[in-house]
Structure prediction request, 1099 residues.
Amino acid sequence: MPKRSDIQSVLVIGSGPIVIGQACEFDYSGTQACRVLRAEGIRVILVNSNPATIMTDPDFADATYIEPITPEVIESIIIKEKPDAILPTLGGQTALNAAMALHELGILEKYNVELIGAKVEAIKKGEDRQIFKQLVLDAGADVAKSVICSTVEECVAAAGELGYPLMVQPSFTMGGLGSGFAYDESELRRICESGLQASPVTQVMLSESILGWKEYELELMRDTNDNCVVVCSIENVDPVGVHTGDSITVAPALTLTDREYQNLRDISIDIIRAVGVDTGGCNIQFAVDPSNGRVVVIEMNPRVSRSSALASKATGFPIAKIAAKLAIGYTLDEIPNDITRVTPASFEPTLDYIVVKVPRFAFEKFPAANNTLTTTMKSVGEAMAIGRNYSQALQKALRSLEKRGSSFHWDGALGDVGALLDQIKTPTDGRIVLVQQALRAGATAQQVFDATKIDPWFIDQIVLINEVAADVAGAPSLDETVIKFAKDHGFSDAQIAQIRGLTEAEVRSMRHAMNLRPVFKTVDTCAGEFPAETPYHYSTYEEETEVAPSDRKKVVILGSGPNRIGQGVEFDYSCVHASFALSDAGYETIMINCNPETVSTDYDTSDRLYFEPLTLEDVLEVIHAEQQSGELVGVVVQLGGQTALGLAKGLQEAGIPILGTSPDAIDLAEERGLFSKILEDGDLLAPANGTALNLEEAEVIATRIGYPVLVRPSFVLGGRGMEIVYDQAGIRDYFGRIADQGIVGPKHPLLVDRFLDDAIEIDIDALFDGTDLYVGGVMEHIEEAGIHSGDSSCTLPPITMSDSQIARVREATLKIAQGIGVRGLLNVQFALAADILYVLEANPRASRTVPFVSKALGITLAKAASLVMVGKTIKQLVADGHLPEKDGTYIPAGSPIAVKEAVLPFKRFATKDGRFVDSLLGPEMRSTGEVMGIDVDFPKAFAKSQSAAGSALPISGSIFISVADRDKPQVILPVRRLQQLGYKVLATSGTAAILARHGIDVQVVRKHTDDNSVAEGPSIVDLISAGKVDVVVNTPSGSSARKDGYEIRAATTAADKAIFTTIAQLSAAIGSFEEVIAGPFAVKSLQDHAIDRAVALAQ
Prediction:
C-alpha cells in the first residue's frame, strides 16, 4: 500500500532526558524518524525536553519544541500546530505513556488527531500485564504462573499461592523500574511498595520464579499487509534475574537449535498479530528452562525498544527508519534496504559475524549503592563489538568499556577457587572477569555453571580463551602463527604483552614487522549475498579487506565510546555535527566509535563508519587502513570527551596529524604548574592551591591554604573523585576511600584548591582560531560553586551578572585561549566571589554544555569548531553565515531565557537494605541527563525545567523546611512568599522557631531521630512517605543532622517530590511557584525563537 495521502503533518513525541533504562537509543530512533518523515514531504513537529540530543536540533524538524512532555503542553502544541497524526512509538516509555494520557483525557478525540505507529488497543494489550497474559495463552504459548495486584496486602496474599521466591513487575514502566525478586515477606513488601509507586496505573504482576532460566528476545516488524519479519534474535549471557539492559548480550542467539529458534519465531509472530502491531516494530522476551526446554513469554514492548538500537546496529537494518515509513502507510516489500539497495525490507537480515553488547556501569559514583544486578536496570551505557566468532567479539567488547579491570587478564597469583566460586554466585558488574579468573584458578566448567547458571557453551568459550592465553605464554617464540592465533580470539596487543612480559609497543612493532594487520569486513545485512553500498566496517584477522579505496581528503572523527555519567550524548552531538559540517565542506568523514545507542554510529551519519573499540591499537589500525588511499588531513580528538583526548598523545607519537588544539596545548590546561603560569601572564586569579601525590603532601597543602578545600584528581571527567573536605579527618578519610581506585599517584597528582564559599559559578563555551575569540554563551549556575557543573541548573543568558562582569569573563577567556594555544572549542569555569573573578579550570575541548548553548542561542558551535580545525577563520565563518555576526555575549532586549536542569538517577540506586542513596549534590557529577526550559523570563523557564525534569512544582500543598544554621537568615523571605501564595509550611523545631519569630505560620514536625516530646504525630520521613508533603527544602549541616538529612532526602526521592538542597535554588524558584499557580505554560518552537532573535539582532 503506498504512502497515505491524508497525513500532511506528524507530531513526534521524543523520550525526554536521558535516564537509566531510557538512554540515547530513543534519540537515535527519533532522529531517524524525523529524517524519514521529512524526506517523504511530511511536516514534522517535535516535542522533546532534552537539549543534549541531535534530535532537538532545529534542522531535524519543521517545528522543534523543547518543552516538558506533559499532556497539557502537548495539547498546547496540538492547538498551535494542528498535526494530522501523533507518532509515539519511537520515544520510549515516556512517549507511549504521554500518548495514553492524551487518549484518556480525550485530547486526541477533541482535536481529531490520530495515533500512528501503534493503536491504543495494541499499546494496552502489550503493556497491561493481565490482558497480555491472556493473549499469550490464547496464542497457545505459555507464561509463568502469575497474579495481578493493586495493593501491598493483595501482593502478600498472592505470595501464599505462588510461593517464594517470586518476581514483581510493574505495568507501564521502563528499564525494569520498581521490579525485583522477593525471597521473603519483608522483601516483597519493600519491592511491591516501590513497584506500585513506579507504575502509572498502580498495578504490579507477581509471578513464579524463573530465576536461572535462559533469556532470549526477538526483534520483529509487521506491516498492514501482515508481512512479518524477524530482524534479529538476541541472547542474554546472564540467565533470568539480571535485566536484559544489564546483561552481556549476543546476536544472533547462539545456543538454540534450529527447531527451538523456529518455535520462538512462530510464537512471536502469533503474538504480534494478536496484539495488533501492524505499522512498526516490537520486541518479545522469552525464558527457556534449561532442564526441560519449557518456554515462557516474559513480556513484549509494542514500540521500538532499547534492543531495537542494538538490533539495528548489529544487522544494518534501520528499524526506526522503517517503523516510521510503516506508520505512514508503506508496507515492508515497498521499502528498499539502504545497504544493498536491491533487496526490500521484507528480506530478513542474515549475519556472518557475531555481535556482543556489554553494559557500562557507574557504581563508583554511588559508593553506598548495592552493586548486585537485578531486574531493575542500573547500567548507564553500553559498548558493542563485532567479530567473526564469539571469543573475538567478546574480548573486543570488554576492551571497549574503557574501564580498568574490565578485560580478561592473566597476571598475578591464582585466586582461591572456593572464594571465587562464592563471589560469582552474585551477579555484579565485574562478574564475567571473575568467571575467567575462577576458571584460570582451576574451577571446572560444571562448578561455574552451578554457581552462575550461565549456559555451559558461554563458559566453555572462556575456557577456550584461557587455553589460548596458555598457548601464547608457552610458545617458544612470539612468531606470526602465535600472534595470529591470539588475534583470532580477540586478544589485544596489551594482553599479549602482559602474558609474555613485554610492552604493548614491542608487541605492536613485532606484529607490524610481520605485516600482520587486521582486515575490515562489512556489515551488509545479507552475509555477502549482495554487494553492500554502505561502508560500515569491523575488524578481524583474515585475508581480504573490504575497504574500498578513495582519493578524497579524509578526516577521522573519534567518538566518545559508551555513555557514562560525565560523558554522555552531548559529546556524540558534537561528533555528529562535525561529521555533517566537514562532509558539506567536501571532506570524506570517517567515524570510529563503539556505542550502539548513538546517532554517530548510524551508517548514514558519516561517509564511513568503523564499529571498533576506542583504544590506541584499534584506532591506529583503522587509520592505517584509510591511509592506503587518499589523503588523511587529520584526526579530530576534541569532540569525543576524555576518551578521544586520551588517545591524542599516542596518535601524535605515531605520526598522525591531530586537528585543532595540539596534545601539548591540551596538557597545558591539565597540568597545574603550566596552567598557573598562563594565569600569571594574564594577571588572572585562581583560588589558592597546590598539588599532592600522597596523603602527607595533601595534609600540608590543606593546612597552608586553609579549610574547606576542594580535592580533585587530574585527568578525569565528570568530577570523578572530586570532593569538598572540611577538616584533616576528612582528608584522611578521602585517601582511605580512593586507595583502590588508582586515580591518584605519581603520574596522576591530586589537585587541592581553596574552596570558595558563597561564590557564583560561571561557565563559558567559546571558539578560538588563533586570532579571534567567538563566545557561544556565558552561563550562570543557579547553585553556588561546589556543585559539579553537570549537576547544577544553569541559565543562559546570565540573570544576575552585569554587562561589565560578562565583559571581564570574555577578556579572561581570551587570555586563556591565547596562552594555551587553542584551535577550536574551549570551556572555562569561573567563580565570582565578592566581585572578584577566579579561574577554576579550563578545558580545551567540547564541553557538555555545547548542545545547550547551541539550542538556546541558535549558534552551531560544534559545526563551526570542526571547520576552524581544518583551517577556516572565525571571520570567514561569520561571512559564510555559519555563525551569527554578534556572538553569545550580546543579548538583545527581550531575548528568551533558557534554563538547563540536571536529571538525577537516585531512584535506580538503593543501598543493601533497600533504601535510596543520598540525593545530595557535590563536586562529583551524578546526573545522567538534562532538560531545558525556555521562555520569556526566568521564572517561567525555571518552572518548565522543573516540570520537564519530573519534579514539577505543585500549585498548592505543603512545603517542608529544614535548613542548616548558616542558611536560616536567607530562608525567611522565600518562605514568607510561599506562605503568601497559599502553601502550608512545615518545619523541624530549630527552623520553625526562627520562622515563627518572623511572623510565619508554621507547623512543627519531628525529625526522624526525635521522639514525641518534640512534636506529636508522625515524623517528617513518615509524612513524606505518606505523600503528605509536596516540596522539601533541606540543606545539609553537621554530622548528626546529616543522618536526618539523608533520611529526608531518600524519602523525597522515593516519593518523586520536588527537593531543594541549596537556598540559591529555592530563591530562584520563588517566581516559578507564582507562574505555576498562574496557569498553563505557553509554548514556542526553536524556529520561532530564531526568527525573533534575527529580528532583534538586526535592530
